[in-house]
Amino acid sequence: MSMSDPIADLLTRIRNAQQADKRWVDIPASNLKKRVCLILKEEHFIRDLIQVKDDKQNILRIFLNYDDTGVPVIEGINRISRPGRRLYVNARDVPRVRGGLGISILTTSRGVISDKIARRLKVGGEVLCEVW
After folding, report:
1. 14-47: per-residue pLDDT in tens?
2. Are 118 and 94 in contact (CB under 8 A)?
3. Residue 8: which of 29, 42, 26, 33 has the closest Cα?
4. Helix (H) or strand (E) run with residue 46 in it
5. Which CATH architecture has domain 77-131?
6. Which residues contact 56 (CB under 8 A, 6 or more apart)?
């Protein structure tokens, strides 16, 4: 079965794993998913990620981050631009999430970057998701 939206699948697997109090979640690897996860790691929304080799497609193992009381660090994670409705923004209109408490992840001409870096570089692009 082919997957029409791999980024939505990534976000759903992370959301479901946190609701089930899992320490990690495995997803099929791709360069785009890996870059999105690296941004989540840089912003401390996930603890770590490793790439597990297998015979077919490699697997990304994402280690989820919880606070001292066991509450997930990610309160919400939403897909913004979908295959049926893409959302592009210019450099002036890069969205702020929860007044700067969250991040937007964008794919731009400079690669997949967070909203903070997009504002600093003054570039726009497609808004993939929001995390807070």
Report:
1. 999 999 999 999 999 999 999 999 999 999 999 9
2. yes
3. 33
4. strand 46-52
5. 2-Layer Sandwich (3.30)
6. none
